[in-house]
Structure formats: C-alpha cells, structure tokens
Amino acid sequence: MGEREARLLEAVERVHSIKDAAREAGVSYRTAWGAIQLMEQAFGRPVVESRAGGPGGGGTTLTDECQDLLRSYQEMRRRLDGDLARAWGSAGNGGPQSVATG
Fold first, then answer.
1. What is the pLDDT of residues 62-102, one digit of tens each?
2. What is the pLDDT of residue 18?
3. pLDDT at residue 97 in the model
4. What is the mean pLDDT of residues 33-59?
5. Helix 18-25 crosses helix 29-43 at what angle (to 10 degrees)?
C-alpha cells in the first residue's frame, strides 16, 4: 500500500462510494476500481464491502481488516514523517513538510 491507495481508501471510508472516492482522490473510477482489485489480490481478501441501494441506501465501506491496515499505514507514515522532520531539523535544513506528498 502506498500513499495513492491510502488516499483512495480514506475517501471510500468518508464518502461510502468508490465513484465519489475516485473523484475526491483525483483518479478515474476505472483506476480506483483497478487499485482496489489489485489490493484485494495482493491481500487475498476483500478490502471493501458494498451494499445495494434501497430504502436504507447503498454504499461501500472498508472491511474491518482494511480499516486496521489503513490505520497501521497512517501510523507508520506519521512516525516516518516525524523521524524525517527531526533528522532534517537536526541537520539544520528546516525539515520536509511531509514524506507522503506524492
């Protein structure tokens, strides 16, 4: 999982739609769906759960395992950003804004 996939999964969790999450993440629906399929193949299990529409409405959410994976990724990214900022700061460089910016 990388930054692009994390942004997509964060958006799916927020908007409960792959189509809307793709737009929010700045990728096409096809690219988003392809990324989700690749993650599912790599992990050997689903990363999203979809419910058909109806009276309660439909939607897509992350599986519990995917939520755990995303939280682990986010924590690892925060620690890495902090470590890099400290290393840059101690070298007198002012520090990078974030290692996860692209």
1. 999 999 999 999 999 999 988 888 888 776 665 555 555 54
2. 94
3. 58
4. 89
5. 110
- Token pair of 51 as six digits: 């419910």
Token couple for 98: 């974030």
Question: Could you tell me if 12 and 48 are in contact, meaning their C-beta atoms sit under 8 angstroms apart?
Answer: yes
Query: 60 with 17: CB under 8 angstroms?
Result: yes
- Contact by Cβ (8 Å): 34, 101: no
One-letter amino acid for residue 88 of the chain = W
Element of type H or E holding 92: none
Domain 3-90, CATH among 1.10.10.10, 3.40.1190.20, 2.30.40.10, 1.20.272.10: 1.10.10.10
